[in-house]
Amino acid sequence: MCVVSKKNKFWFHYSLLQYYYLKAAIVRYLLFFVIFAHMENWKRTFYIIWSGQFVSILSSIIVGYAMVLWISIETKSAEALAIGTISMLLPQALIAPFAGVYIDRWDRKTVMIVSDLFVAMVTFGLIIAFSFGFESLWLIYVMFALRSIGSAFHSPAMSASVPMLAPETEITRISGINQMIQSVGNIAGPPIAALMIVAMDIRLILSLDIIGAAIACISLFIIKIPSPKRKPEEKYSVLREMNDGLQEILSQKGIFMLIVIFVLSMICIMPVAVIFPLMTLSHFKGSVLQVGIVEVAWGTGMLLGGALLGMSRRPLNKVLLINTMYILTGMTFFTSGLLSEEGYWIFVLITGIMGIGASISSASITAVIQENFPPEKLGRIFSLFMSVSIIPSVTGMLGTGFLADNIGMSYTFIISGMIVMILGIISLFLPAIKSFAKKSGNRA
Which one of 21, 58, 305, 331 has the minimum C-beta count within 10 Å? Predict the structure, then answer.
C-alpha cells in the first residue's frame, strides 16, 4: 500500500487549489474579453482611456504629494510649500488660453500624447539632477511649473475630446466617472506617497511618473479620437482665435453667468480649502493622522458624488444640480465654522458631504460646456474655463494667511459659507440661467 506523507498531501492540495484558481482566473478573463468585444465602440474606447488615465493620474498624485512631503521634510517652511503650490497652478492658468488655440488647431490625441511625454521628460530630468546631487528647491519649483504647462494642454484636450467619442446622452455619466477616477487617485495617492517617502529613494518615486505617462500614452495610441469638422482654413492670429473662444462663451449668456457664479464661488471656497489642515490642527487640536482622515473623507465624498452621476441613467437637471451643490457647500462651510473643539468627527462627516457637492457641481458644469458648444471650439473654451478657475486658487493661497490671522479660521468658514450659499440662491433666480435651463431641456 502506498503511503502518502502529510507533506506530499499538503502540496497535492495546494497544487489542486492553484489549478482551480488559475482555471477560474482564465474563465474570468475570457468572460471579460467576450463582454469587452461586444461593447459598443464608444464604451470600449472609454474603458481603454480610463485604464490608462487611472494609472497616470494615480502616479502623478503620488509623485506630486511625495514632492510636497519632501519639501516639508527638507525645509519645514510653509512659505516654501506656498511657493510650490503656486508654481503648480500659476503657469497653467497663464498659458491655458493660448494652449486652447493650438488644441483646436492640432490633432487632440497627439496633443495629449505629447503632453504626457513632456511631463515624463521633465520628471526624468529631475531624476538625473538628483542623481548628480543637484537637490535645489528652485529646481523642484521649475519642475512643478513645467508639469503645469503640460497639464495646460492635456486636460482641455481630454475634455474637448469627450463629445467626439460618446453620445450626448452619456456625457454627464462620463463626467461622473472621470470624477470617480480622479477621486480614487486623491484617496489612494497621499497615503501611498507617505509610505514611499519613508521607505524609498525619492528618485524611485519619481520614476512612477514616467511609468504612468508611458501607460497613458499607450492607451491613447491604440484608440482613435475623431477630429471635429472645421471650417475651411483661414489665417487667424492666436489672439483672434482666443477672442473667438471668448465670444462663443459670451454668446450663451446662461452658461456665461454659470461660469461667473462658479468663479465667484471659487474665490470664497479656495481660501477655506487651503486652511483645512490648520482647522484640524489648531481649532480641533487634532494630529497629523486626523488631518489625513479629513483628506480621506473629502476624497471619499468626491468618489461618491462621481458614482452617483456615473450610475444615473435618467435625464438630470444639471443647472439645478450645480446651484443646489453651491447651497449645500455653503451650508457645510457655515456649519463647520460653528463647531466647537469637540466637533472633529462632525467636521469629518461634513467634509465628506462637501466632497459630494464639489464632485457633482464640477462634473455637471463640465457636461454643460461639452453639450452646448461646437466641438471645434471646445479646446479654447475649456482652456479659458480652466484659467479662470485656477486663478481663484492662487488668490486663495495668497489670502489664506491674512484671513486666518485677522478674522480667525472659524469666521473664515462662516463668512465664506454664507457667501457661497447666497451665490447659489442668486444663481437659481438669475433670468439668463433660468432661460438657459429651460431652453436646453435639461439634457442628461
Answer: 21
Helix (H, G, I), strand (E, B) or coil at 284: coil
**Residue 394 CB neighbour total at 10 angstroms:** 16
Phi/psi at 179 (nearest 5 deg)?
-65, -40
Q: Per-residue pLDDT tens for 414-443? A: 888 899 999 999 988 888 888 887 766 544
DSSP code of residue 282: I
CB atoms near residue 107 (< 10 Å): 13
The three three-digit cell numbers of residue 105, written as one number: 488647431
**pTM of the predicted model as reported, rounded to 2 decimal places:** 0.73
Task: Tell me which residue has cell 474570468.
Answer: 28
d(CA 284, CA 423) in angstroms, rounded, equals: 29
Q: Are 302 and 358 in contact (CB under 8 A)?
A: yes
Distance, CA of 35 to CA of 29 (rounded, Å): 10
Question: Which secondary-structure segment (H or E) carries 14?
Answer: helix 6-37
Condensed to tens digits (0 to 9), the pLDDT of residues 44-55 reads 777 888 788 888
- Residue 338 has phi, psi (to 5 degrees) of -90, -10
Q: How far apart, in whole angstroms, are the C-alpha atoms of residue 360 and residue 372?
A: 18
| Rounded Cα distance, 145 and 84, in Å | 9
CA angle 17/23/29 to nearest 5° reads 135
Chain centre distance of CA 30: 33
d(CA 266, CA 279): 19
d(Cα 330, Cα 304) in Å, to the nearest integer?
Answer: 19
The interaxial angle of helices 137-165 and 41-75, nearest 10 deg, is 170
Query: Distances from the Cα of 332 to the Cαs of 340, 357, 393, in angstroms?
Result: 15, 10, 19
Separation between Cα atoms, residue 428 and residue 320, nearest integer Å: 7
Name the grid cell of 1: 500500500
The Cα-based distances of 351 to 291, 334, 362 in angstroms read 11, 12, 16
